[in-house]
Amino acid sequence: MAVTHSLGFPRIGARRELKQALEAYWSGKIGLSDLQESGRRLRERHWQLQGRSGIDLVPVGDFAYYDQMLNMTVLLGAVPERFDFGEETPDLDRYFELARGGKHQPAMEMTKWFDTNYHYIVPEFHRDTTFRLGTEWLFEEVEEAAALRFNPKPVLIGPLTYLYLGKAKEDGFERLALLPRLIPVYAEILRRLRDLGVVWVQMDEPALVLDLPPEWLAGYREAYRELAAAGPKILLATYFDSAAEQADLMKDLPVAGLHIDAVRGPVQVPVFLDSYPADKVLSLGLVDGRNIWRTDLGRALALAETARTRLGERLWLAPSCSLLHVPADLESESELDPEIRSWLAFAVQKLQELATVDKGLRLGVEAIRSELETQDRVLGDRAKSARVRNPAVTARLERLTEADYRRYSPFSERIALQRERLRLPVFPTTTIGSFPQTADIRKARADYRKGELNEAVYRETMRKAVREAIGKQEALGLDLLVHGEAERNDMVEYFGEQLEGFVFTRYGWVQSYGSRCVKPPIIVGDVSRPRPMTVEWISYAQRQARKPVKGMLTGPVTILQWSFVRDDQPRSATALQIALAIRDEVLDLEQAGVAAIQIDEPAIREGLPLKRRDRDDYLAWAVKAFRLASSGVADDTQIHTHMCYSEFADILPAIADLDADVITIETSRSGMDLLTAFRDFQYPNDVGPGVYDIHSPRVPAKEEMLRLLEKACEVISPERLWVNPDCGLKTRAWPEVEQAMAHMVEAARTLRQRW
Ligand code: GLN
Ligand code: ZN
What we know:
Elements: E1 3-4, H1 17-26, H2 32-52, E2 58-60, H3 68-75, H4 92-100, E3 110-112, E4 119-121, E5 124-125, H5 137-147, E6 152-157, H6 159-165, E7 167-168, H7 179-195, E8 200-204, H8 214-228, E9 233-237, H9 247-252, E10 257-261, H10 268-273, E11 281-287, H11 297-311, E12 315-319, H12 338-341, H13 347-363, H14 369-384, H15 391-399, H16 411-422, H17 439-450, H18 455-476, H19 493-496, E13 500-503, E14 510-513, E15 516-518, E16 522-528, H20 535-544, E17 550-554, H21 556-561, H22 571-591, E18 596-600, H23 615-630, E19 638-643, H24 652-657, E20 662-665, H25 673-681, E21 686-689, H26 702-715, H27 734-754
Parallel strand pairs: 1-12, 2-6, 5-7, 6-8, 8-9, 9-10, 10-11, 11-12, 17-18, 18-19, 19-20, 20-21
Antiparallel strand pairs: 3-4, 13-16, 14-15
Helix pairs in contact: 1-2, 7-8, 11-13, 17-18, 18-20, 22-23, 26-27
Bound molecules: glutamine (GLN) and zinc ion.
Zinc ion (ZN) binds near residues 642, 644, 727 and 728.
Function: Catalyzes the transfer of a methyl group from 5-methyltetrahydrofolate to homocysteine resulting in methionine formation.
GO molecular function: 5-methyltetrahydropteroyltriglutamate-homocysteine S-methyltransferase activity; zinc ion binding
Protein name: 5-methyltetrahydropteroyltriglutamate--homocysteine methyltransferase
């Protein structure tokens, strides 16, 4: 009775088939028609999976060879002029040029999609940007789905969200000013869809959950007034948070339906239900599209029933958001512990859950009695399971006092002691942690994992990599050394695998960008550290070195942020548990004589909640977690942290609150811009602004780095400056790294002479 639908399905394929096809195509191993055939097969399979799970309306247009935002850009004919494609509508090759860079143009920028780990390609806008109907792909896919007898519901990113997420590439103009030019093209797309027999179109407008300025909100009225007249019924979809603040506006728009996220924003459900307009359907996002836990069906059904008493047939059911952010199918996880497996639901299972709720709604709760019983048993087991609760962890957290979150002495006293202990020159040089992961290193790690390399040989291979990294750093004349991270596949997975409370899937891939996927660990239970995780490697490195070696850890917020987290306790509680485990490691490193320990927190900025009002609370516990992890050490042990990827000028007070002795940041590409914010805020501790863009194979000259450092000296007092690259060097090759580091060391030496 209730229409069930899906807002989007993971496109990469349960076995990452799209990734393989894309990479084979890019490297010339397969032709265009092979790639297109892979795409077609995946779309068909995904529609089938969704249909078979009992979904009435399947999404079309959620498929993309690279990114759904980029698909919108080419559909709207908004290719940046700098690519010089002329009047031509881009074909797939040109589309990839936009995403990956062309012969003469760097790629379009990429950034995170709201608070997810998915990256979209950022539209570029100029004052004179125009729009026109571009690629035919969406229309072709609608026909493809219809030919397969599915009921297609095209998915578009709505005009306001599209503009809002783009970037003005020119000063003195507001991208909202482009709206009047954009609306007619959207209208034309809608008319084309209508002509293909499409009844419903989903317009994703998640920007509505952000703190939008009033002129943007007014834009919604303007846009949807015109679009509603274009033909198909519009379902306006919001997700990732509550849109309650905009409920009046949304109810007032002349669209045929709204979708809201009842998982991330449960508070908005009563707000929307209250005097909900009689001419609209309301789609409730009941099943979590951002996490991998099984849904509490009883609760979902109760909520659906409440909504139905108000809405009757106008109630629709859906996952909270597109399923792009969860792995495809739990069926593949045959190696996962069955107990834990029973607690999980991936995309396919989530749609089945939705169908079950729908069945309960249609036929009464008796009709799904057995599903509910299984459900209750499983959820009950999970709540009681020893894999989840560890009383020792809870007890330790309860015993913590204020003092555990504070270093013994203030920074000014600590740094003097640290300088004495470390004996570093002014403008000390260091790196961020990883060195090139050579083919040998990767192969040894992979073979060891598969059981094809025995432990002794594996260890020796890694030790050799450590020796080489130390040897090269000493030859280069770097001051504070690192072991190089050869033994680490990934900075979160490496720790998750050694911590109690984490599990790993075999095929739990989630698209990160383009063909890139990540396999986030799952935090199932209380986190603790059974034994030291890095001490042996760092100690080994220290024994090979005459200069001090920095210990290297990933921070609690980053581990949390890049994992699937528990839904049975607040994120903050999990963060503190991870922090305790990292604290244990920090103290063991210190015990082993390590004088400087880096705790990376590159993800602290991206964890920021979407709404301003939630930010202080997040920052408070994020800072607490870092301080818990780092504050146990003596004054003369130096704590470093590292951040990259994003602008974090807006959270500098929190960054300063971390009270790390040294922070290294990414600044080279922006020409030290971020440092100005550090100065304005009077950031108190040591800073290492990156002078080498590690994303590029280009080796900057010594003079270039020197200029950046001179600029840095103008804004930060020189005795607090460190000299380092933007980030880890694992994706680079040794020859360029050695050259770049040699230039960096020379630049630091030149500065020292002047000092
Ligand atoms: N220590 C890590 C490295 O050097 C840091 C990576 C990161 O910031 N993303 O690779
Ligand atoms: Zn980094």
